Model the fold of this input.
Amino acid sequence: MNQPLAARLVPQLDPVHDGRHRLRDLPLERESIPYVISLPEHGLATAIYTWVNKDHLGGALFGVLGPAVGGAPIFEAVDGIAMGPDRNFDDWNVGPVHLSQDLRMQTSRLRATAARAQLDITFEALHPAYAYGFHPDGCPAYAATNRIEQAGRVRGTLVVDGRSYAIDTTGARDHSWGTRDWNLPQHWKWLHAQSDETVVHFWQIQVEGRIDLRGFVHRDGLMAEVRTVDVDFALDDQGRQQRIDAVVHDTAGRSTRVRGEYFAHFPVVPVPTCTLLEGAMRCEIDGRAANGWTEFMWPTAYLEYLKAQRATG
Amino acid sequence: MANDVAPLRHDPEAGHPLIEDEHGLTPEWLTAVLRARGRLREGRVTQVTPSPIGNGLLGLNLRLALTYDRSEASTPSTLVAKMASRRAESRESGAALHLYSRETRFYQELAPRIVKGLAPALFADVSADGRHFCLLFEDMGPARGGDQLAGCGIDDARAAMVSAAALHAPLWAKRELLELPWVDRNLMVSLYVGKMPPYVPACIERFAAVLEPGVAEVATKFGACIGRYFEKHAKPWTITHQDFRLDNLLFDARGGQVPVAVLDWQTFLPGPGALDATYFNGAGLLAPLRRQHEESLARLYHEELVAGGVRDYGWEQCWNDYRLHAAHGLIMGIVGAAITASTERGDRMLSTMINRHALQMMDLDTLALIQR
Done:
């Protein structure tokens, strides 16, 4: 069960977890790091995602989406690349992605290349990473052994079809390691919204008939854990998120409102039975301009049914 | 960006699990902690030489001399570790009274909000059953310790008042932090109310030969109205040390960089801040010196609170609270006598406390305040 959360100082994780972990010899063990950056001013968004499993086989994807791309998202992905046990995330080169994290949970450089797009950015953390493992109920076992979430200042360039876009904004990353059972959850909403002043993150998961909730608000220099969220949202006829209005209540007694409208989507299918609908949004946090991203998870068959229902009115 | 004052927790994956005793203070464990805290970059701890500090009854305090495989600028040559007692019986007492978990959680959750006047904790964690804990501190030495029996001079008393205010101001009237589910103030209050009155006659008999005139009468009258005393604990409250006296303070710590460092937070409670100030002066100053400077010391405490951002707490209320809480020292002396075996030094300490605090109550007319 979810324990009632008291106000407390959010603990900080050993920065050694910025690096690679020794995974257990279990079927669903893997480690992954995504970065998501929303660029509504350019009509663009980009997601970079890399992973490695217990057998040291890695993968990566680089996606660029949004109206400025025109048509289908740019999408470059590889999987099953032998990475060996010793390569770390300070020099992680897999398929289209080259990631250099400082192994201190503070900065990183990220480069990615696809046929039509090239990305070269730096990430500078805006706050200490939030670790799910410190929640009184821990990190959900079906999600990972532990998981961190962190927003940062992102600077660099994104080139799409030869046109260069300067990036100077905020983005988010996470890092999880351990078992990921994609089939146990029935639905989730993962949200990151951030400005230079405020960062909001929650992951609300419907699983085994209950709702798990983790997250934090970092505002005025104080990080507090999410106690409850009230989420209103709308989907389009493809089941994609159109808008969201979330009021996040934290253990410091604060309520923070995130309102967003989506301008770019793309689906990720980690296993055939599970579809992640990624959505980049332009948003406000308590009325002030911010950037955001959400991921809505649906069982693929359910999502197909939902789309069919909406198609027939 | 990083908050470098929050201590690490147990994390086996990162090489620093919760250790149960001093055998866990290995070079590998210390290397992992120091690296995580940014105190060690490439090097490793190669040798740890522990030596005991003090004679803690419920806890084990060790100074750790460290050697490294290479020289780095920020590596500490010594650290201080505090852990559960080696003796099972003492560990059970520490767990039963929640002393280990209370002090650990103080360093995890409250100390980073206070910072000033505290030993920075690099690691702080406690086992789920509360029987084992480990606190790893920066060494606050060299420093000058206090001597409770000999008392202190006015300069140290002034420094203690400034220190008390610096501890109290950051959490002053912060309700969400003072209503801590893991601190049971009522448990301690009922312990004091239940233990003290029945022991007053025995205590008077035990120390009859050394009690100052009038002390027995004050103790008897206070024993009869201790419940009323606790009813008068008016808010605003803050985090109070409750045993803020010379034996728990280091002066000129870190070679003079820290004027006063406050140790031993096992018995802290949410409560009225003036209690710590009164208790220090009652315990640490001999009566003639205390009488001469008491009001100016209390004023200094109040001025420092105000300078630290405390509002809506005027001097009149502060002075009233100061006078009222002279009773706290008498409680500590009598309850201390009730729960500890008689030893020569222990008896001298306890009778000194009872005398000094009862005299302070007389000087400040504390009983009249309680009974009013």
Remarks:
- The domain at 144-371 of chain B is CATH 3.90.1200 (Aminoglycoside 3'-phosphotransferase; Chain: A, domain 2).
